[in-house]
């Protein structure tokens, strides 16, 4: 069993693995508050606080804390970590103050782009860290994206103006999230093979099969 625990004002954070309890306190006097954990529990990402203030995103592995560099601004927010613990994604301020989606690996923070807008945010990453999903904001509307090998692809909508990718499959081939339809309502979507499917329509057409699809408890 692996579990994370943090007490923001009690000045400690711990990681429990079996009967082992590891204190995340660093020798520099900073405390680490983990928010995401790799699949094997060996790596976590969260926020490092000095003097009671949360001010930096950091990665913990094998007893060492590493601060993630920003994209030139002051604020960085981690949103997900890959299963293997090698890649961290989220959003970070640029020197202009705009927040851009980032992908961190091997000590470097890469800007994933904005699809031509001003801001973006990465919310999910594949198991190996090679594919990232999130959204970019263009003219006050969010548009889901999928990033791979330096290419940021807009995923479209379900006929409306907005969409946001919230999850991605382990191999990165399938993205899920929410998108607006023509009347402005938001529906869940599943994107694969360059096609976005409306899951509300899928539920409506398969609702009679629900008892057969339930998992026994």
Mean of the pLDDT scores?
A: 83
Order of helices and strands: EEEEEEEEEEEEEEEEEEEHH
Helix content: under 10%
What is the count of structural domains? 2
> Which fold name is given in CATH as the topology of the largest domain?
Neuraminidase
The best one-word shape is globular
CATH superfamily descriptor of the largest domain: TolB, C-terminal domain
Largest sheet: 4 strands, antiparallel
Q: In percent, how much strand structure appears in the residues? A: over 45%
The level 1 CATH classification of the largest domain is: Mainly Beta
Corresponding CATH architecture of the largest domain:
6 Propeller
- Tell me the number of helical segments per DSSP (H or I, 4 or more residues long): 2
Give the termini separation.
21 Å
User: What are the segments in which pLDDT stays under 50 over at least 5 consecutive residues?
Assistant: 1-21, 206-217
Structural class: mainly beta
Spatial order of the strands in the main sheet?
Answer: 4-5-6-7
Radius of gyration of CA atoms, rounded to a whole number: 19 Å
